[in-house]
Specification:
By secondary structure, the chain is α/β, with parallel strands linked by helices. 53% of the residues lie in helices and 14% in strands. Strand 3 and strand 4 form a beta hairpin.
Length: 280
């Protein structure tokens, strides 16, 4: 089973990213966990779980996904006499019931094992030799498999809530970018501006960051300038699009409007002669 035991559920919830390649507690997780399938009727929600309301629309969408692909990531439960209590994954459990499933894949942990694993993750997260992606993965594991908020994680780790959230956002980077970040030991500060950039821009700018040693400020400036250029080009293109189409149809020729100029291109000399006669 290997590192599969340590995975979150990014396949079902796009904004909950989790990369088990950087899970430094996967081996410990395997020692204290058991991956199996359990009947849905034997599983119950945690009555102390603060989240009570679930969007019916979101659950319905997840149920449809489960019908097509199954439950791609297991929920986490603890054994209680003849039943199992959900630690993390109530949303998937509810959706699985809506989808008509009889069983669901689960990671079974004892309360003691759960506490030990949480402690292991926190201890690893406090280590100074972890790279930022491993750190982000540890935080995300606490969030997805222990239902801890960023504020609760911050309290346990001894950092600010803003710092925790910023580090977790690094998991939104393209997979290749995360690997390059780790390999080249790029700082969290330099990579943070890339989180909101297009993947194509991220991969285009990374070689420059590595080879030229760009600072976070330079990365931010580059992204800002290129976003402005891109937005301006789009606005200009959309501004005259209808006019270009109208003129092209009227004169049966390709029309381009740029700046203060209009370029009309004919297919051949005969078409050009006809256009000249019309414009006389």
């Amino acid at each position: 089973m290997g590192k599969a035991l340590g995975r979150g559920f990014e396949s079902l919830i796009p904004d909950e990213l989790y990369d088990d390649d950087f899970d430094v507690t996967a081996d410990e997780d395997e020692k204290v966990s058991k991956l199996t399938e359990i009947e849905l009727e034997k599983i119950k929600r945690d009555e102390n779980q603060p989240r009570k309301d679930f969007s019916e629309e979101a659950l319905s969408m997840l149920a449809d996904s489960i019908k097509k692909h199954g439950v791609l990531q297991p929920i986490v439960v603890t054994k209680e006499e003849d039943s199992y209590k959900i630690v993390a994954g109530e949303r998937r459990w509810r959706a699985a019931k809506m989808a008509g499933l009889k069983k669901i894949p689960v990671i079974v942990r004892s309360i003691d094992a759960q506490n030990r694993l949480e402690l292991s993750i926190i201890e690893n997260a406090q280590r100074e030799d972890l790279n930022a992606i491993e750190l982000a993965t540890a935080y995300m594991k606490l969030k997805t498999q222990f239902n801890l908020s960023a504020k609760e994680i911050a309290t346990k780790i001894g950092k600010s809530e803003k710092s925790i959230e910023g580090t977790i956002r690094l998991l939104r980077l393209p997979e290749e970018a995360k690997k390059i970040m780790v390999k080249e030991r790029l700082s969290e500060g330099v990579m943070k501006p890339l989180v909101s950039a297009d993947p194509e821009m991220v991969m285009a700018i990374l070689p420059k960051i590595v080879e030229e040693g760009w600072t976070a400020r330079k990365v931010e400036r580059y992204i800002s300038e290129n976003k402005k250029k891109s937005s301006t080009a789009i606005v200009k293109a959309n501004l005259f699009a209808k006019d270009e189409e109208r003129i092209s149809k009227k004169y049966n020729a390709t029309t381009k409007i740029h700046g203060r100029s209009i370029t009309i291109t004919c297919k051949n000399k005969e078409e050009l002669k006809k256009l000249i006669e019309i414009l006389k």
